[in-house]
Amino acid sequence: MATSSPQLREIRGPLLPPKVLVEESDECLMEDVEDEDPAFVDAEELCSGGLKAGSLPGCLRVVIADENTQEQCEVFGRFPLTGPWWRVKVQVKAVGSRKYHVQGFPSYFLQSDMSPPNQKSICSLFLKDCEVSSDTRNKFLAWVNNTLGYKNLNFENLRETMRVFKKEPGRNGQKQSTQMEQEESQPDHERRLAVENTIPFISVMTALQFPKIMEFLPVLLPRHFKQLVSSDSKDVLGKIEEILGTHPWKLGFSKITYRELKLLRCEASWTAFCQCKSLLQLMTDLERNGLIIYSKLKQICREHGHTYVEEADLTSQLSNCMSFHDVWQSLQFLKDIGVVTNKKTCIFPYDLYRAERDIASLIGDLMMRPPWRLHVDVKKVLASVCTKRPEDSRSDDTLNESKPDETRLETLEDILNTQGSGDHLLDNGESEDNAEISQGQLDQDQVAALEMICSNAVTVISGKGGSGKTTIVSHLFKHVELLEESEVKKACEDFEQDQDVPAEWITFSQQSPPKSDKAIEVLLTAPTGKAAGLLREKTGFSAYTLCQVILDNYPALNLVTCWKIFLTLLSQESVLLN
User: Fold this and answer.
1) Is residue 422 very low, low, confident or very high in pLDDT (cuts 50, 70, 90)?
2) Is the pLDDT of residue 136 over 90?
């Protein structure tokens, strides 16, 4: 598995104050960032309020004073923190004279003593980074020089020193004694200074309390590091600090980090662990082998698009780094902690197994339901499409533009007389003959497609451009809509014919008929936005891409979770046409 390259050099030393920090292109580092599995966030986890992964830190060019060679090295890489109060340790690859590219991510160590004799300059730069005004910085440093002295100033006493400075009577005039007493009686979190809420200050205080987090988390969890530090969650940070000191292997499994820390899709790669030698020494052979096997299992599933790997194949691919007995023991360890599961000779990552099982269950539930049907004579619907002349369409469009509601209702009966379902009879023999002639000209593929739509809750329609996919869908559901409106109109007219009805009830001719509750909810989707727009235009119904339906609202979901949500929607009597 991944190990440090002998060509790499380790640089350890303080970051020097940069002249200008400009984020640069990361193209040269793309090869150094390990391929990651797509974010696989279950809907339940997404709604749990857990901490989600962020983006990788941007690429910066910094200067590090190497403690071993005393040279100033220009280093290009991903540095989430850049203040000169940090010391870093990083693996680099030479790309020129004293110029290097970072391999992986840096570890951070706080210079808690502010690097004597540079306390004044480092403190000034730090307060500037915390957005303290120039005037306040100068007053504070002058006050420190006259009272405490720069040599006694450090990050451990900085917070208390600033609070004492704030309460200094002569700084902004004498405070009222009652105000002083009120401030003293407030809880510590309510007496926080404004500077204590800034990210640089929180990061420094975190480093004082949780040094292992600053050393290892930027390497192990680069996408979660800044969110964790800026969250200032002492409970979560304390648990991670404890894990790093006792059971660091737990951070290699997202199932465990979610269960114990409520971190979403958060797991360190085996490659990242290989950069943290001291953490590897805390692991047993069983735990290290478990991480190696899990990494290989994910790699095979990702590269081949599988949800499982045959146990014999997995053992064969690991034969160069561990024995068959070690593989068997480590697989049992992974099963015990719930990271993988096995069915017969197949080894599944648990998340993929659960997703596949849930999808199969939802599909099985759909198949066991009673048949879903639209009671429509599809041949007569298509016959009306074939017999409709272009000039009639243009005249109808003109009428519709002038009086949309009235014209729609006036032409409703004529359309339904020729498009009637099995429950509607044709008015005369002439119409019936025309329908029969048209049926002889029907495209049987279109007939089959409409029959499938009318008898299945899920229908996927495919065909080349111009084959009539949108046309048949639009005519079918316009026909269904017209049937419903016709029933409402007929009921209203029958009601108005009642001789005993008061005059004020006869209102149908003055206003559009009331809209009835739709018997069928239809969700039209298409593979592209252009196709969805065409569906909207032709049918008059809302149409979307599947991405718009699900992913726009839940961008962290992956395709498997989308399918689970999609199938759940179908089980609630929705209809999807693609």
Assistant:
1) very low
2) yes
Q: Which two tokens stand for residue 79?
A: 């540095």
* In the block, residue with structure tokens 């409703």: 412
> What size, in residues, is the chain?
578
Sequence letter at residue 5 = S
d(CA 171, CA 143): 9
Query: Cβ atoms within 10 A of the Cβ of 567, count?
Result: 19
Tell me the C-alpha to C-alpha distance, in Å, between residue 336 and each of 40, 88, 276, 312, 555: 22, 38, 26, 20, 32
Q: How far apart are alpha carbons 413 and 432 in whole angstroms?
A: 15
> What are the residue boundaries of the structural domains of the chain, listed by start?
1-211, 285-368, 373-457+464-518, 521-578
pLDDT at 479: 81
**Quick one: CA dihedral 112, 117, 120, 122, positive or negative?**
negative
**49-63, 366-380, 427-441: the lowest-pLDDT one:** 427-441
Q: What is the mean pLDDT of residues 548-575?
A: 55
Q: 447 versus 256: which is more confidently predicted? A: 256
Fold for 285-368, please state it. Answer: Arc Repressor Mutant, subunit A (1.10.10)
66 within 8 A of 87, measured Cβ to Cβ: no
Q: What is the largest CA-CA distance in the chain?
A: 110
Phi/psi at 516 (5° precision): -85, 160
Evaluate whether 468 touches 476 at the Cβ level (below 8 Å). no
Q: Are strands 107-110 and 86-96 parallel, antiparallel or unpaired?
A: antiparallel
